[in-house]
Write a structure and sequence with these properties.
Layout (H helix, E strand, L loop, with lengths): L1 H38 L4 E3 L9 E3 L6 E3 L2 H9 L6 E2 L18 E2 L8 H7 L3 E4 L7 H5 L4 E3 L7 H15 L3 H23 L3 E7 L3 E4 L9 H4 L4 E2 L11 E3 L1 H7 L3 E6 H4 L6 H5 L8 H4 L3 E4 L1 H6 L4 H15 L1
Parallel strand pairs: 3-4, 3-6, 4-5, 6-7, 8-10, 8-12, 12-13
Antiparallel strand pairs: 1-2, 8-9, 9-11
Length: 323
């Protein structure tokens, strides 16, 4: 009887050991499988979001990353991807302010990369936007360079292409798809708001006003083509910098909604935007009389648009202002 009890105890202990070993082996196998799956995606060839830049082939996931494009920085941040260095201007959008900290190396300003400093970092990849286009060749001598900012001529599709660059390179497709689904839901809501808001005009304040048309090539044309707002004037120049307009011209256009993006605040300059805009002329517009002069977050719209978090914030800002 004693021998039987002893045998039972031994068998139970042996079963526990075998179960633990099996679980450990399964865990290790799963981890190895995930690593193998990630590695099997490489070599990976990445195309920039606009024409004119060479395709880049990566042999493995980049680890030492330099980011100039704040929209792509926004996407990487939303997906939990660490970066080594960023462009450090006078201001960051609020949700990216942590990148002003000393734990992130300084790659220069948005328009003036510190080429020698970047070379000393020995990065695996550099991600740029239009503001760094003139330095493309020099940066390419340091590390593979990918242009990741949305193309104004095809804003929404190229925005999603930018997100997919991050998702593929850093094995974050599931997370990216979840974020994109949230944005699509918000888009449905802003489309409904736009349908009830009338004719809209998007302007940029930089001590003078620039207005943006609704067509391809317009920097903020996606407010019309994607968000769904009817254009108050579809004859405006469709360009990155917009068409300079006077207050009298804005009154003549007479939008039901006037969106104002404050470039001064976005670039760290003290701004008098409300005092300048809410003058005797603009106050005669339908937008002013209906309380629909909407001041949009300058840093968000001017610096970091085209990111997973920033696009959602932009849409939500409009919904909150007009709903």
């Amino acid at each position: 009887m004693k021998n039987f009890k002893l045998l039972t105890i031994v068998m139970a202990m042996l079963l526990l050991v075998l179960t633990a070993c099996s679980a450990k082996e399964e865990e290790t196998t799963g981890s190895t499988s995930e690593t193998s799956e990630e590695n099997s995606a490489f070599p990976m060839t990445i195309k920039s979001t606009v024409e004119g830049y060479a395709d880049v082939t990566f042999e493995k996931t980049p680890e030492k990353i330099v980011v100039f494009d704040y929209g792509f920085l926004d996407t990487l941040d939303a997906l939990g991807v660490d970066v080594m260095a960023v462009a450090k201007g006078k201001t960051f959008p609020e949700h990216l302010e942590k990148y002003a900290g000393e734990e992130y190396l300084n790659a220069g300003t948005l328009k003036e990369p510190l080429l020698e400093d970047i070379a000393a970092m020995e990065p695996d990849a550099i991600f740029i936007s239009a503001r760094q286009a003139d330095f493309y060749d020099q940066l390419s001598e340091i590390a593979p360079v990918v242009y990741t900012a949305p193309d104004t001529a095809n804003y929404w599709d190229s925005f999603k292409e930018s997100v997919n660059i991050a998702a593929q390179l850093f094995n974050k497709q599931e997370e990216a798809d979840k974020k994109l689904a949230e944005i699509e839901t918000a888009l449905e809501e802003v489309n409904a708001v736009a349908a009830e808001s009338g004719r809209a005009l998007v302007t940029l304040y930089n001590e003078q006003l620039s207005a943006f048309g609704p067509s391809e090539g317009s920097r903020y044309g996606h407010v019309h083509s994607v968000y769904g707002f009817e254009a108050a004037d579809d004859s405006l120049e469709n360009s990155t910098h917009g068409a300079q307009v006077s207050y009298e011209q804005v009154l003549e256009i007479n939008p039901d909604v006037l969106f104002v993006i404050d470039r001064l605040a976005a670039t760290g300059v003290e701004s008098n935007v409300k005092e300048a805009i809410e003058n005797d002329i603009i106050n005669k517009t339908t937008a002013a009389q209906n309380g629909n002069i909407i001041y949009l977050n300058g840093a968000l719209w001017y610096l970091s648009g085209g990111g997973l978090e920033s696009e959602l914030l932009k849409i939500q800002e409009i919904i909150d202002a007009l709903k």
